[in-house]
Design a protein that fits this description.
- This protein has 15 helices and 12 strands.
- By secondary structure, it is an alpha/beta fold.
- The strands form 3 sheets. Strands 2-1-3-4-5 form a 5-stranded parallel sheet, with helices on both faces. Strands 8-9-10-12-11 form a 5-stranded mixed sheet. A two-stranded antiparallel sheet has the order 6-7.
- The structure holds manganese (II) ion.
Length: 382
């Protein structure tokens, strides 16, 4: 028998039991496209199996930062005891998962980020990068893992209709998360892209029907749509991508797609400004091994994109952070060959949380530790 993704079956069995016994279920998902589509697939699975979700929660990255936060946990406490499922929220929230358990939640983590020195004390963890996972392919986006979970949930008797609905989302989010197009990812992407043109989702119809996209190739259109779906626009605590990809209202979908496209132009402008400010701040592009800059005026949600542009230009790791009153939160992008997560492991005593992928990661740090953190990173990358 070929090896399986560690704990995936266990996770499926636990969810099926919760559905059967009508237990309360809370889904806590990251608000990027990988997180959002993971939530949509799991939600639609559970509904189709006859279960019900008590609440879907997405942290607002600008306000709450990345991952699980305690404020959200206390807000969600009203559902406890419940099965608490986190999707694409990382695997670094040791303290917060402890709090969740104390509040009476049973915690199931499904994630694909790099595993740090310690893993949280969750009841079940699915992450192909964890110790003891013998599944040969490790490069899934979270949405790919959730799709594989859905196949087990339906005991391989998923309707063709659902399968198509899920795979179109898997294809879009695997591309958005920049997971390598190889092996199982490539197979899911090829099949999923094929379904996009005949999608029943009004949101997908509206996005791919936008006038601005008409002259583009399929892959260019997907990339454009993905960037539109990444725009921060929250209503009733739900990110635009979730609202747009789940709505059955055709007219509303068209309007929201247009609004997001416009917001995208403004975002582009703002990112350009931030990049210029970074370039002014850097003391010496030649001598400094990395870029490490921050400001209280920058929007955290734009820093990842700004950093991506800067690494292309300068070919060195870029750490950008938004400074708040006591803490700062940052986004990192690193060129191939560098590893941002390994670098931060050597500074973990200075950080509140950190995590991500070698080429794209994030951190939270007390302002009083910013200088030390920077110093140690300079040493590490020299
Ligand atoms: Mn992801």
């Amino acid at each position: 028998m070929s090896p399986e993704i560690k704990n995936l079956k266990k996770a499926a069995q636990r969810i099926l039991r919760a559905v059967k016994k009508k237990e309360r279920i809370v889904i806590y998902g990251d608000s990027d496209l990988d997180g959002v589509t993971s939530v949509i697939i799991l939600d639609e699975c559970i509904k189709n199996l006859g279960g019900k979700i008590s609440e879907i929660y997405f942290p607002d990255r600008e306000e709450d930062g990345y991952g699980i936060n305690e404020k959200a946990l206390f807000y969600l406490k009203k559902h406890s005891p419940a099965l608490f499922i986190t999707l694409d929220c990382g695997i670094g929230n040791l303290k917060e998962i402890k709090t969740a358990k104390k509040l009476g939640f049973e915690v199931l983590i499904i994630d694909h980020h790099e595993v740090l020195d310690k893993i949280p004390e969750a009841d079940i963890i699915v992450d192909p990068k964890q110790k003891g996972d013998k599944y040969p392919f490790k490069q899934f986006a979270t949405v790919g893992l959730v799709f594989k979970l859905s196949e087990i949930l339906f005991k391989n008797k998923m309707s063709e209709y659902l399968r198509r609905n899920f795979l179109e989302l898997v294809a879009m989010a695997t591309i958005a998360d920049m997971m390598p197009r190889v092996d199982e990812n490539e197979r899911m992407i090829i099949e999923g892209l094929d379904y996009l043109d005949s999608s029943w989702r009004p949101g997908i119809q509206a996005l791919f029907g936008l006038e601005d996209l008409k002259s583009l190739s399929l892959l260019q259109r997907v990339n454009k749509v993905n960037s539109v779906l990444n725009i921060r626009d929250i209503e009733d605590n739900l990110p635009a991508a979730f609202r747009l990809l789940t709505t059955s209202d055709k007219k509303g979908a068209g309007e929201l797609a247009k609004l997001l496209l416009e917001k995208g132009f403004e975002k582009k402008q703002r990112i350009k400004e931030i990049i210029l400010e970074v370039e002014e701040k850097v003391f010496s592009w030649e001598e400094e091994p990395i870029v490490f800059e921050g400001s209280s005026d920058w929007e955290l949600v734009f820093l990842g994109v700004a950093a991506s542009v800067l690494i292309k230009k300068y070919q060195k790791p870029v750490f950008l952070y938004k400074k708040s009153k006591d803490e700062s939160q940052g986004s990192i992008r690193a060129p191939a060959g560098f590893n941002a997560v390994e670098a931060m492991k050597t500074c973990s005593d200075l950080l509140i949380t950190y995590g991500g992928h070698p080429q794209a990661a994030g951190f939270r740090v007390k302002n009083e530790n910013l200088d030390k953190f920077k110093e140690r990173l300079f040493k590490y990358f020299r």
